[in-house]
Each structure stands twice: as structure tokens, then as C-alpha cells.
Write a sequence for this structure.
């Protein structure tokens, strides 16, 4: 049975513990042993589809199967009907199941199927009734109609008023309860509006008359849900919805966890006998040591004193023997301690894993291969989406033509800039050449040195004195000049040389004018 539950965990996305609890719930409800797994599979599909507690749903479905005398292999047909009603009406699957458990007792006393009762409950829930009020009103209606001949005078008068005999109604409930209820509802609707509520009060009582009134005023909706529950489309609806949910990532993750749990449980079951033997042996040894120490306290104390005395007198051999005895006793104590037992168990487990390493390694290799394959598929899909829709992905995918376009654009910009620079340089050279010609035409060159005049008359000698800065100074320029001249196309070499000399002379003049000269010092 444990193996069957584990195998069920490979296909049902519920935890293995939940599945085991569902099996236990089915067994409590009297489900035969050979039908437990099939029952659990159907109930687990319902729990997954309706998002209900697994053990609770299995318990309720077991009750429903017993109340409605539904064979366990046929419980799936009722599950299909409930699921199809859940999908096509306002009612919820969990509420329909609760309605069935509340009305199953009285339904067992008449001729009605689980699908028909599910349709009735789903209709009342769709019309806004709560599960408690819907089931209570239904029980009252079934009891009144199933025992129509035993009804009160007011009840019989109400039946006569709607044109039905109590005997026919009572017999009809044992042949076709659903058809009989429809006849009663249609007969009530034929009455004038002002009399309908009073008749319903006499039929089911004041507290349930409003529920019956909703049903009587919505017979069309009731018939629609009867067709839903018994339609061909309802068959297999639970399996279809379950398969759709099992394909989800969450369900696949739960199935993987179930596989891991199965492996760990199987390994644990292999280790358990060895663990039990080890624990039994240490428990026995611990008890023996404890009993010996308790019964021979004086002897143990004396052994300790003797060992200490021999060690103190230098009897090395006996000291070593004493230490060995102490270590042995310590080992026994450690093994008797829960921590020591745990360490021993871990060692035993490691030994068993080592002996069975090949099948364990094969399992994890297969597991990792499945994970890697799934991860690679997910990554490929993400890459496809990224390169197809994300702007950055589109840039990366089309990088080569984009790079070529930018290279061409830069080449065009560089060529245009070079042409513009050459044009500007030509214009500057033309202006420079025009200026030289203009200077030459107007005589703007260096002025010729004035002609030497005749000898000046001799002046009386006076002591020389400091004159203005640079007067009579002789400056020797020992500086060296280095020029790195790169001529451009169209430049005049002579103009460049003249400009260089002009600047040198300007520097020398500045130096001469900055010197102080005093002839008296010569």
C-alpha cells in the first residue's frame, strides 16, 4: 500500500502525506482495500481542481458514495457532474459536495441519483442560498413528499389545491424523485401569484417556504442544471481539468518533490532495520553499564583510586592500562548518549549509501539531466522572446548591419570635415599671400638705415654716468633657438623665414632695453 501511494504521488500533484491521509479517510469510510487507490485518485483530482483540503474531501466523498450507494469505480461520474456544474454555474464544487453530505440521508430513502441531487443543490446555491439553508429546505421537501399520505390536513389540502394526490406523489418519490419534484413545482406555478406562497408554507413549513419559492420561480434554471449534470459534455470533465492543472509549473514542482520524498523514504526503509539493530545493541550495552555501575559503586570507585595511585608512583604500564580503561568507559558513555548514538547511526547510514552508491548515483544523474534539460529549454525560450521583443535584444541580433551603418556614417563625416579643413586652409593661405603683395606694393617693408652724417664736433669729456636702460649696452645673445616648421601646401618659404627673423629681433630688442648700462664701471 505504501508503494501504491508513492506511485500515486508520481501522477497527482499533492504531497505524499496528503495522499496517504486520503487513503486513510477512504478506509475509514469503508472503501474496499482493492478500491482505495482508485478512490483516492478520483478524490485527489477533485481536491486539486476545487482547491480543497485533500483528507477532508476524501472523507466527504466517501460519505457521499456510501449515502447514495454509489460504487467506488463509478464515483468519477459524480465527480464529473460536480466539476461541470462548478464550471457552468455560480455554485462552487466544494459547496455542492457539502450539500450532498447534508442531504444524503434523506436522499437514500427515495429514488434519486447523485448527479440529480448535485443539480438540485447547485441550482439552490446559484439562486443565492447558503449550503445550510439549501440542504435543510431540501430535506424538509423530500421528507414531506416521500410521506405525503402521512401529512397533516393542511399539507393534504395544499396538495389537493395544486391538483396532485398524496398517494401519487408519495409513490412518485420512490420511482422518480426528481420528476415528482418538478411536477410539484410546475403545479405550484399554475396557481395565482397571491396563493403560491401560502401553498408552499403548507407544503414545507414557514421557515423553508422562501427557499421553495426560489426554486418554484426558477424551474427553467433547475432544468438547465439537470441537463448540465447529465450531459455528455460532463463526462470526463474532471480529468480534462486535472490534466490542464497538472501541466502547470507548480504541479510539476510538487510531482518532483514527491519523487524526492519517495527516494528518501525508500532509503530510510532500507536503513531502518540496521538502525534498529544498532540502537538495540547500544540500548542493551547502556543498560548493562548502568546496572553494573549502580550495583558496584564501591568497586568502580576503588578502581579509579588504584589507577590514580599507580600513575602517581610512575607505573607507566598500569597507568596506560588505566587510561585505556577510562577511554573505553568514555566510549561506552558516548555511545550510550543520544549524540553518540546519532553519530553511530550516521556512520551506519553512510556505509549503506556507499554499498548502494551505483543505483543512487544513477537516480541523481537522471534527475539532474531532467532539470538541466528543462532549464535549457526555458533559457532558449527566454532568449527567443528577448531577441524578438526587447529593444536591446533587437540591437544585439542586428549588430553587424548597425555597426556597418555607423562606420559608413563616420567615414562620411570624416571626409566632409577633411574637405572643409582643406578649403579653410586654402582661404587662409590666399589671404596671407595677398597681404604680402599688399605690403610690397605700399612699401611696408623694413625702413633703410639713414645715411651716415658728417663727423660731429668733439664735445668736452665728461664722466660717463648711468644712462637710460639699454643705452650703449652690448648684449650677447647666447640662447639657441630650435624651430620645428611644417609647411603646408601653398605656403611661401621666404615669408616663413622672414617672420622667424622678425620674432628673433623683437626678442633681442626687448632684452637690450631691459639691461642697465653704466659706463663708469668700464
Amino acid at each position: 500500500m505504501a508503494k501504491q501511494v508513492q506511485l500515486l504521488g508520481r501522477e497527482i500533484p499533492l504531497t505524499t502525506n496528503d495522499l496517504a491521509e486520503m487513503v486513510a479517510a477512504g478506509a475509514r469510510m469503508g472503501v474496499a482495500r482493492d478500491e482505495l487507490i482508485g478512490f483516492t485518485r478520483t478524490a485527489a483530482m477533485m481536491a486539486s481542481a476545487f482547491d480543497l483540503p485533500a483528507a477532508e474531501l476524501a472523507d466527504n466523498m466517501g460519505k457521499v458514495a456510501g449515502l447514495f450507494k454509489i460504487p467506488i469505480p463509478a464515483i468519477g461520474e459524480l465527480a464529473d457532474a460536480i466539476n461541470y456544474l462548478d464550471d457552468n454555474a455560480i455554485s462552487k464544487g466544494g459547496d455542492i459536495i457539502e450539500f450532498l453530505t447534508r442531504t444524503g440521508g434523506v436522499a437514500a430513502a427515495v429514488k434519486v441519483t447523485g448527479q440529480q441531487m448535485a443539480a438540485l443543490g447547485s441550482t439552490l446555491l446559484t439562486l443565492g442560498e447558503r449550503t445550510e439553508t439549501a440542504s435543510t429546505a431540501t430535506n424538509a421537501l423530500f421528507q414531506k413528499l416521500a410521506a405525503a399520505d402521512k401529512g397533516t390536513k393542511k399539507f393534504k389540502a395544499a396538495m389537493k389545491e395544486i391538483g396532485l394526490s398524496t398517494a401519487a406523489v408519495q409513490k412518485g418519490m420512490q420511482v422518480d424523485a426528481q420528476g415528482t419534484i418538478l411536477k410539484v413545482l410546475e403545479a405550484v406555478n399554475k396557481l395565482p401569484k397571491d396563493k403560491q406562497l401560502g401553498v408552499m408554507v403548507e407544503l414545507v413549513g414557514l421557515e423553508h417556504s422562501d427557499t421553495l419559492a426560489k426554486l418554484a420561480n426558477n424551474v427553467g434554471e433547475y432544468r438547465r442544471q439537470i441537463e448540465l449534470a447529465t450531459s455528455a459534455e460532463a463526462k470526463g470533465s474532471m480529468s480534462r481539468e486535472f490534466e490542464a492543472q497538472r501541466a502547470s509549473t507548480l504541479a510539476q514542482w510538487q510531482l518532483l518533490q514527491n519523487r524526492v520524498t519517495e527516494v528518501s523514504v525508500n532509503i530510510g526503509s532500507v536503513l531502518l532495520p540496521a538502525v534498529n539493530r544498532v540502537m538495540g545493541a547500544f540500548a542493551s550495552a547502556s543498560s548493562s553499564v548502568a546496572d553494573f555501575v549502580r550495583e558496584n559503586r564501591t568497586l568502580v570507585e576503588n578502581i579509579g583510586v588504584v589507577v590514580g595511585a599507580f600513575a602517581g608512583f610512575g607505573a607507566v604500564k598500569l597507568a596506560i592500562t588505566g587510561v585505556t580503561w577510562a577511554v573505553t568507559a568514555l566510549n561506552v558513555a558516548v555511545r550510550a548518549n543520544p549524540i553518540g548514538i546519532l553519530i553511530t547511526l550516521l556512520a551506519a547510514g553512510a556505509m549503506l549509501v556507499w554499498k548502494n552508491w551505483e543505483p543512487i548515483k544513477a537516480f541523481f544523474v537522471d534527475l539532474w539531466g531532467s532539470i538541466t534539460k528543462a532549464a535549457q529549454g526555458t533559457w532558449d525560450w527566454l532568449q527567443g522572446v528577448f531577441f524578438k521583443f526587447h529593444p536591446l535584444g533587437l540591437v544585439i541580433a542586428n549588430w553587424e548591419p548597425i555597426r556597418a551603418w555607423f562606420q559608413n556614417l563616420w567615414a562620411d563625416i570624416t571626409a566632409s570635415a577633411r574637405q572643409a579643413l582643406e578649403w579653410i586652409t586654402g582661404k587662409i593661405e590666399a589671404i596671407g599671400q595677398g597681404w604680402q603683395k599688399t605690403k610690397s606694393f605700399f612699401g611696408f617693408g623694413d625702413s633703410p638705415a639713414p645715411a651716415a652724417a658728417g663727423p660731429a664736433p668733439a664735445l668736452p669729456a665728461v664722466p660717463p654716468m648711468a644712462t637710460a636702460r639699454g643705452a650703449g649696452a652690448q648684449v650677447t645673445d647666447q640662447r639657441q633657438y630650435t624651430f620645428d616648421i611644417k609647411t603646408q601646401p601653398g605656403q611661401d618659404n621666404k615669408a616663413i623665414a622672414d617672420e622667424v627673423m622678425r620674432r628673433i629681433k623683437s626678442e633681442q630688442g626687448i632684452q637690450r632695453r631691459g639691461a642697465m648700462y653704466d659706463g663708469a664701471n668700464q
Remarks:
- The chain has four domains: 2-248, 250-355, 390-425, 473-515.
- The mean pLDDT is 75.
- Residues 44 and 54 are 6 Å apart (CA to CA).
